[in-house]
Amino acid sequence: MSYQTIYVVDLPGTAFNEQLDPACRASDVDLRHFLEEDECWEGCLPDSSVNLIVDMTGAVTLIVHPRKYSSVLYNPQVREEVLAWEQSLKQLLPVKNILRVDEFVLQHWEDKAGEFWFRNIDGFTLLWNWLKQGETEGWTEV
Fold it and tell me: From the CB of residue 34, how many other CB atoms can be counted at a distance below 10 Å?
C-alpha cells in the first residue's frame, strides 16, 4: 500500500493563506468554514499545476501533495518533479521548517499526539522532536 506525501509547514494556516495569490486565497468566511466543518482548501501554488489539499485550520499548515510517498522515493522522474515543486514552496513561504512526511508515519504521530495535534502552537516542534528520536524513515526536511 502506498501513502500520500504530506508537507508539514511550521506556519499557521492563516499565514500560509496570506502567501497565496489574492485571486486564489481563501476568504475569512472560507477560513471559518474550514475550521467549523473540518474541511480543507483545494488549489495550486502560484506558477504550479499541482492540485493540493491544504489544512489551514491550525498553528501548523498541512499540505497533501498528490504524489504517493513511495513514488517520490523510487521514481526518478517523479522525484525531480517533486523537488522542483518543493523549491517553489520554499520560495513562496517565509519559513525554513518544512517537512516531507509519509502519511503512514504521520498517522502514527496522530495516534500518539491526537487527531488535531497541528492546532497546538508547539505542534511542529513536538512532531519534529518525535521524528528525530525514533523515526529514521518516512520523512525528510525540505
Answer: 19
pLDDT, tens only, 54-111? 999 999 999 999 999 999 999 999 999 999 999 999 999 988 899 999 999 999 999 9
Phi, psi of 97 (to 5 degrees): -95, 95
Q: Looking at the whole model, is its pTM more than 0.90? A: yes
Report d(CA 16, CA 43) in Å as an integer.
13
Element (H or E) spanning 15, and its range? Answer: helix 13-19
The alpha carbon dihedral of 8, 85, 50, 25 has a sign of positive
CA proximity to 140, closest of 8, 11, 2:
8
104-119 pLDDT, tens digit per residue, is 999 999 999 999 999 9
Grid coordinates 500560509 are at which residue? Answer: 16
Q: From CA 5, how far away is CA 64, in angstroms rounded?
A: 6
Q: Please, are residues 121 and 30 in contact by the beta-carbon 8 Å criterion?
A: no
* Sheet strands (E) in 36-92: 41-43, 52-55, 61-68
